[in-house]
Design a protein that fits this description.
- The protein is of the alpha+beta class.
- The chain folds into two domains: 107 residues, PAS domain (Beta-Lactamase, 2-Layer Sandwich); 70 residues, Arc Repressor Mutant, subunit A (Orthogonal Bundle).
- The longest helix has 16 residues.
- The N and C termini lie far apart (46 Å).
Length: 202
């Protein structure tokens, strides 16, 4: 009994040290069933970013607007994807929070044979951009990238479109395309995927 307790304490200590994804579980009426500590911290970050925007979105409780919007989207999909197997290779994704330090939200439904009222919504939350930044700093030196080119590569690593990159950096899509063209030349790549393969290779 005592050994089991010590083992459990040990697991808790290890789990607390590892910053895993935030996990949120809600009912189909958006009642919160579970939110781990990481999810609560990331929700606070999103709320701060949402409330600092010009439109001053008000988050209800601890659940940020971006999260409730994602839940609404998942509920619509649950009307069509009514079997668990329908969700095996499917998820609803969106970025939220501060564009300089975005948080990736991945949501999926857990349909129930009892109908949508018994269904659940699961959302995972994680910061993106931490790993890519370390890789892009090394790539900046290796490929002689400019500061702006390094920033573009960081956004490419997040899966952003040219339009999203342009909006974030306050430049035109054409300028983003020019940056990508120069990055391709410097990394000897012919595609966006090729750039990332060069930048993040070991």
């Amino acid at each position: 009994m005592n050994e089991a307790l010590n083992s459990s304490d040990h697991v808790d200590i290890i789990a607390d040290q590892r910053a895993g994804p935030g996990i949120v579980v809600l009912t189909s009426t958006m009642q919160l069933l579970h939110m781990n500590r990481q999810a609560a911290d990331l929700s606070t970050q999103i709320n701060k970013a949402e409330n600092s925007k010009e439109n001053k979105k008000i988050a209800h409780g601890v659940i940020p607007t971006a999260l409730t919007e994602l839940c609404t989207e998942i509920l619509k999909v649950l009307q069509v994807r009514t079997e668990a197997k329908d969700w095996e290779q499917f998820e609803v994704k969106r970025l939220a929070g501060d564009p300089a330090k975005p948080i990736l939200l991945r949501g999926f439904g857990l349909p129930d044979r009892g109908g949508i009222q018994q269904s659940r919504i699961v959302i995972t939350m994680e910061e993106v951009g931490r790993r890519p930044q370390a890789g892009t700093e090394q790539a900046k030196e290796r490929f002689q990238l400019t500061d702006r080119e390094q920033t573009v590569v960081e956004h490419l690593a997040k899966g952003w479109t040219n339009k999203e990159i342009a909006n974030t950096l306050g430049i035109t899509e054409q300028t983003v395309k020019e940056h990508i063209k120069h990055i391709m030349q410097k990394t000897k790549s012919t595609t966006r995927t090729g750039i990332l393969a060069q930048v993040f290779r070991s």
